[in-house]
Amino acid sequence: MNKTSSQRLPPLKRNWWLKHRFFKLYMLREATVLPLVFFLLCLMAGMVALVQGADSWQGWVGFMGSPVVLALNLLALAASLYHAATFFVLFPRVMPLRIAGRSLPDNMIVAGQWAGVVVVALLFFWLLGRA
Amino acid sequence: MSKQAMSKPGSPQAASHQQAFDEPLWWGLFSAGGVCFAVLLPAVILFIGVLLPLGLLPADALSYERATALLFSVPGFLFVGAVVCLPLFHAAHRLRHGLFDISVGRDGFNKKLMYGAAALLSMLALGLVVAGMLS
């Protein structure tokens, strides 16, 4: 990306992206990292608690259950799925796959990646979900 | 903008040598982090960020002993690399370009701030796993 374009073009106003649905969705996609960063910081706080000991760990689980934190992490879950939906369609464009000389249809590549999401979730269920 | 700052006055060749050799690294980390964010994070957030605090997991699923055993191990180290470090660089890249899009700050500074913060937090996260393995 050429960051010197402002030398040649008139500078854009800060709200340029509000004028078209496509650019609003672009900004929404960029913003998916905000709740992600929140969740990652929570996760790192949990790692610190785990190093500190059992009491800290229980305290951290309680912190994760407080309404605001839980709501932000639900937002992070939704953001991760929205990011996935926008990211998976890029794969066949960036790296078209060919098997035995035939190019794989785009929707199969996208479906394969969603299958990956499900497999990871099943792995977590296998690891953590069984009573 | 960082490229402007790099060009020295009086060197006519400066303009043609303003290739940013580090950019492929940041785009590579962005891409790898994007895959991890999309494929791994939904399950991680669902189980650790939602089901665990709601008490919907079996009681001993992430007890202190179990969580310690799972995290402070070689698979735990790889888990942190894929679930924390790479997505941090993905986020840093999007935040840097997002700030440029809304004309906040200078790109040269934002770049150092974002990738620097991602690198520091990544080292802290991996360091925590190593500290847990050693203790």
Automatic annotation (TrEMBL), chain A:
It comes from Halomonas colorata. The chain crosses the membrane at residues 69-91, 111-129. Keywords: Cell membrane, Membrane, Transmembrane, Transmembrane helix. It comes from the Bacteria. This is Fumarate reductase subunit C. Pfam families: Fumarate_red_C. The lineage of its organism: Bacteria, Pseudomonadati, Pseudomonadota, Gammaproteobacteria, Oceanospirillales.
Automatic annotation (TrEMBL), chain B:
It holds the Pfam family Fumarate_red_D. The chain crosses the membrane at residues 25-52, 72-92, 113-134. Keywords: Cell membrane, Membrane, Transmembrane, Transmembrane helix. The keyword Transmembrane helix applies. This is Fumarate reductase subunit D. NCBIfam families: PRK05470.1-1. Coiled coil: none annotated. It comes from Halomonas colorata.
